[in-house]
Specification:
Elements: H1 3-19, H2 25-30, H3 38-50, E1 54-55, E2 64-65, H4 67-77, H5 86-89, H6 95-100, H7 103-118, E3 121-125, E4 134-143, E5 146-153, E6 158-164, H8 171-185, H9 194-198, H10 206-215, E7 229-232, H11 234-243, H12 249-257, H13 260-270, E8 276-279, E9 291-300, E10 303-313, H14 318-339
Antiparallel strand pairs: 1-2, 3-7, 3-10, 4-5, 5-6, 8-9, 9-10
Helix pairs in contact: 1-3, 1-4, 7-14
């Protein structure tokens, strides 16, 4: 695209983000930034429309960016300005959590702070259990037919699962499993193949093997746990979308109530080392195509553990939101490196 076209596109995107009103050629010519008549700018508008970067609402003489226009702006026109807003967009709510080494508190604070900074919905996922190491395992006999397995991980997360048995279980068998599993698995990553080896040892008595096999599902974990999602600012998202005149808000809220619907949005971000961005119709879910998602992973060196994300209308301040998400993810990574 020609430099003058890029200059006009950038001006339209930034003016529309700031005002929410379609941007007219007369307004741009009067700013003095271009040094050309409004008729020349109208011609550039037409060229940008042909490229699918601008749209012309029927009720206005101005232009608005399309999803494709936002994408071009983010990828090609605002890169050098992203970091300039980082300091203003940084949430400053992790110090108390850092002092206590409380990861869940840090995640909750980050979600709420990020929502306040951006005035949108913020979602922060807890460190994936599959990426944590086992610190301690408890096998508790609750009743003769009920056994609870408790996993305590290196991140401080606690996972509990109860198993019901047809035949009664005695204290000795439960104690054997506790000692055996701690000897074999303490310090092992939950997603490691070493987990399987502890349950396939041929040297054990058949009853011990059967009991351990029954407990094996307690060690099966997903990439992102829906119960480990910290969400802040649902009301802020509703307000921002309502102000944009977005239809079907009730459907969007119903889908967000089911946290499983958020998981697919975060899987891809967890695999990325930089900011992950999806704008409008780039998202496959129809109920999300009036929104944009900005997400980034956090973790320790060579291992991504969770995600920080913001969901809002496509007319968002991408510079500010990207900087806030990136900085929040970096802050959480710094915290985890201290206590992991």
């Amino acid at each position: 695209m020609k430099p003058r076209q890029e200059q006009v596109l950038r001006a339209v995107v930034e003016e529309y983000i700031a005002s929410g009103s379609p941007v007219g050629s007369k307004h741009l010519s009067e700013t003095g930034e271009f040094g050309v008549a409004s008729s020349t700018i109208r011609g550039i508008f037409a060229q940008l429309e042909e490229h699918g970067l601008l749209a012309h609402p029927h009720t206005s003489a101005g232009r608005v960016p399309t999803d494709r226009g936002y994408r071009y702006y983010v990828d090609s026109l605002m890169g050098e300005r992203r970091e300039q807003v980082a300091a203003r967009a940084t949430p400053h709510s992790l110090e108390r959590a850092r002092a206590r080494s409380e990861i869940d508190e840090a995640l909750r604070d980050t979600a709420e702070a990020l929502s306040r900074v951006t005035a949108m919905l913020a979602v922060v996922s807890s460190p994936s259990l599959a990426a944590t190491t086992l610190r301690h395992i408890e096998v508790l006999l609750l009743q003769s037919h009920l056994v609870m397995v408790v996993l305590i991980t290196s991140s401080g997360r606690v996972s509990k699962r109860i198993f019901r048995f047809v035949e009664p279980i005695d204290e000795g068998l439960a104690e054997f499993a506790r000692v055996y599993l701690n000897e074999r698995l303490a310090g092992v990553q939950l997603g490691s193949r070493l987990i399987d080896s502890a349950f396939t040892t041929p040297d054990l008595h058949w009853r011990e093997r059967e009991f351990l096999a029954a407990l094996r599902p307690a060690f099966e974990v997903g990439t992102i746990d829906p119960e480990g999602l910290h969400v802040g600012g649902t009301s802020r998202l509703v307000e921002s979308l309502a102000s944009e005149g977005v239809p079907n808000l009730n459907e969007l809220l119903e889908m967000l109530e089911e946290r499983y619907n958020l998981l697919e949005l975060l899987f891809e971000a967890l695999r990325r080392d930089d900011v992950y961005l999806r704008i409008g119709r780039e998202m496959s879910e129809p109920w999300l195509q009036s929104c944009s998602l900005v997400a980034a992973s956090y973790g320790v060196p060579n291992r991504n553990l969770g995600t920080v994300s913001v969901l809002g209308p496509t007319r968002m301040d991408y510079q500010r939101v990207i900087a806030a998400v990136r900085t929040s993810a970096d802050d959480l990574s710094d915290l985890l490196e201290e206590i992991w």
